[in-house]
Amino acid sequence: MSRAKILLAEDDRAVLVSLERLLHGQGGFEVETATDGQEALEKAHTFQPDLIISDYSMPSLNGFELCKEVKSTPKLAGAMFVVLTGFTDPSLKVSGLNLGVDDYLTKPVETAELLAKVRATLRIKTLHDELRSDKEQLQRLHRELRDSFDNLSRVFVRLLDLRIPDASTRGERLMKRARAVARRMKVPGKYIRDMDVAAQLREIGKLVAPANDSDEWHYLVASKAILEQVSHFVGAAEVIGSIRENWDGTGYPDHRLQGQIPVRSRILRVLIDFESGWEERASTTPNVTPDHVLEDLRRYVGTRYDPLIVTQLEMAIATSPGTDWHLTKRRVGLKELDVGMVLAEDLCTSSGVKLLSRGAQISTTTLELIRRRHTSDPIIFGACVEVA
Question: Which pairs count as long-range contacts for 158-165, CB under 8 Å and 24+ apart, including other chains?
């Protein structure tokens, strides 16, 4: 077992030699010495002591100044620091404690007191080191756990995208827009992660929902039930479970009112309705702009929507590049699908069979194939096509 290392800083050479002999001989410690504060600081960098015992009055740097330098240097800060002093002014001692001094020894030093205090201080140092090691280990385990959940999240997103056309693209877009609004509202960063997961995985319930059921609330319930089975996703599950709550308390499932609804759920509610409203507008109105959709949302401010969030959405749109908020595709029912339209997402049936890939142009032949397949294997969510 290695011996504890002690650095002695004392400008009185007789006292320095006496203390060195005592600590090395009777104490059995490895000892290094310095005769002024600057020399002590330089030797501390190379010697890396467990404990520094320093006189208060020294050339170059006094004991307090040396302590301040040591405690502000990361690789030295773990060393314990004891000051040898002859002063009794309590306010001066308090000043030293505020600088990082761990204890004091009053001159002249008694042999028994010195050895007892050194051993007690080194025991405290050992406890500090153990606590620091435990903290670092916990931080490492936390990082590993977070990485594991991030990987699980990516697996969920990939699984969702294999069955639900372009779900990951929609989730990514929703996440970025929600972040833009959340930043404007100064939502604390620690809460953003749950909102990110909720935005990306809110559609995962579609994987277990009946093939002929396109009701949003049904798959949101399923999404919440899936995610709350994973401890790290419980917060995201709560966000998803409150997306359909209304500001005035008329929503579901719990009829929460205003601030009772998580702010992240309120943000996602507005943004989800913003996008679905745009798709609906685009199916009937040429050259749709964000203002058209915002006009529709404003009708429900104070009833469905938190007024502040709609205002922040308006400001985010006004201060962001147009492409961040303009629709480049819209969803149409199979009856509206026509020759010449270009698919903006893969076209899949409810069983997961991909009929056409993103970018394919609808021809007379493919349109007949789609409608024929729909009779036996429904295409529940219609087709997503590029906006002309």
Answer: 159/204, 159/207, 160/201, 160/203, 160/204, 160/206, 160/207, 162/352, 163/206, 163/207, 163/348, 163/352, 164/203, 164/206, 164/207, 164/348, 164/381, 165/345, 165/346, 165/347, 165/348, 165/381, 165/384
Q: Using CA of residue 217, residue 219, residue 220, residue 225, what is the dihedral sign? A: positive
Q: What is the pTM of this model?
A: 0.55
DSSP 8-state code for residue 305: B
| List of domains in the chain | 5-134 (3.40.50.2300), 164-327 (1.10.3210.10), 328-388 (3.90.105)
Closest CA to 195 of 251, 246, 254, 269: 269
Cis, bond preceding 262 (omega within 30 deg of 0): no
CA distance 358 to 144: 36
Q: How many CB atoms lie within 10 A of CB 224?
A: 24
Residue pLDDT tens, the chain, 388 long: 478 999 999 999 999 999 999 998 888 899 999 999 999 999 999 999 999 999 998 988 999 999 999 999 999 999 999 999 877 778 888 888 898 999 999 888 888 888 999 999 999 888 888 888 777 777 776 666 666 667 777 777 777 777 777 788 888 889 999 999 999 999 888 889 899 999 988 888 887 766 555 677 788 888 898 888 888 889 999 999 999 999 999 998 999 999 999 999 999 999 999 988 887 777 677 677 788 888 999 999 999 999 999 999 998 888 876 556 666 667 777 888 888 888 888 888 877 788 888 888 989 888 888 888 888 888 877 788 876 5
Query: SS3 for 280-293, per residue?
Result: HHHCCCCCCCHHHH
Please tell me the number of Cα atoms within 13 Å of 84 on its side-chain side.
23
Tokens 């606590």 -> residue:
131
